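Q: How would the structure tokens look for this protein?
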Amino acid sequence: MLRSRQVKEPELADIDVQSIKERLLEFRKEMTELYERDLKAGQTSTDEQTDDIVDRANNSYNRELMFALSDSERHQLIAVDEALERLEAGTYGKCVNCGKDIGDKRLDAVPWARYCIQCQELDEQGMLDDAEDD
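A: Here is the predicted structure in token form.
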């Protein structure tokens, strides 16, 4: 008789909480610095320095790009803060949608991941009804 061997995902107690916390805090610090730099660059970019319509268009595009980057960085900061909250609550490493364990490789690559890979794919397809995004 063959027994199937199940691979057990680590419990939160098995995870090096301090190491993960330090990694998330370091990433948060880097993202905060990028956010502040991009926001400042977007605010200081002006159209008044040239009469050339092409230069003004380029300046406008660059300003919008800087604001868009800072918005993206803001969303990443929120994701990192939520991961830190889950770490403190003892729910880090669990999918916020289905409750299943998030794989070690996924957490290593994206330590602020809130979904297991299956739920992440559903979210990217717009098929995940997640009240936290509202």
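Helices lie at 17-44, 53-89, 104-109, 117-124.

The chain has a mean pLDDT of 78.

Upvote if useful.
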